[in-house]
Amino acid sequence: MLTEILEQPAAITRTLAALLPASDDVRHLARGRTQVLFAARGSSDNAATYGRYLSEIVAGRAAAHLAPSVATAYRRDVDLRHALVVCLSQSGETAELIETQAWARRCGAATVAITNVARSSLTSGADLALVTEAGPELAVPATKTFTAQLVGMAVLARALTRNAMDLRSAEDLAHVAHAVATVIAHRVDVEPAVRMLAGRPRTLVTSRGLAGAVAAEVALKLEETCLRPVPGLSYADLRHGPIAMVDDRTTALVLAPRDGAVLDGIAGIVPELRARGAAVVTIGGDARVSRSADVALPGPDLPEWLAPIGLAVLGQLVVEGVSRTLGLDPDAPRGLRKITETDPERPS
Description:
5-stranded parallel sheet; 2 domains; alpha/beta; 14% strand; 47% helix; Rossmann fold
């Protein structure tokens, strides 16, 4: 897992080089399609959440998650003639998503597959395949394939903008690999955060907006590799009830971009969590966020729309360290495999 985390700057560079030239193909395929729908499971579903926010915030297109069970369990047709359906699977061989993509095309959608395997069932069944270049991933927890999917989401959203984004967006994308490499170069700085998370029995992860997808992903990674139930919630949802569980047995991991619309709210939740007895570890944010934390990790030097990519890498480094500290094997979590069957006993 750690080896593959360290490979991410190169994986991001390769993925941008592979996907940016397909931007015109994305625009052509999406012509006349007013809605973007995402279908995925697991880590890919968290990447899809980032894509949904980008589609609306950057591209100005209505977006939502498409429930695969509508296609695979209920088998109901839906009018998708005005939809662009994006299916994400790192392997491209998740049977439920292959079936969902085929169903979407029958219902009139244009389909895009985002996967890390060029010759996969998902790519062969799509109108357009965006193949990330993360390289083979051996550890069960998705790291470099997940960040490559986030890059894919950024490229997709940029291509879907009705008005071409300014040149600064291209410069921002070109800076992502360097920002991630800088984060990795200072990975020893995560050790205080690792000790704090390992030292208390309860953990929660929170953020909001674009970074909320990464909060959910880091929580999932902690559950997979550390064998603890870990909620990953928007701080808005956290305040609507779950915050009642926060006490002096809790470590809260708070993720924040360096700027943007949700930064004030994230800065406000940190002292609130500490007032309830939680130890708070922050990743990113500004001086207000870091001053309020027990342990503060500097975030990536990226604007809000791309910050989740760097925040994800920092989260992965923390998770890998916590798993090792707890005496577990982060490479091969108990009972998990690389490709998951959603309903292994369900007949096709």
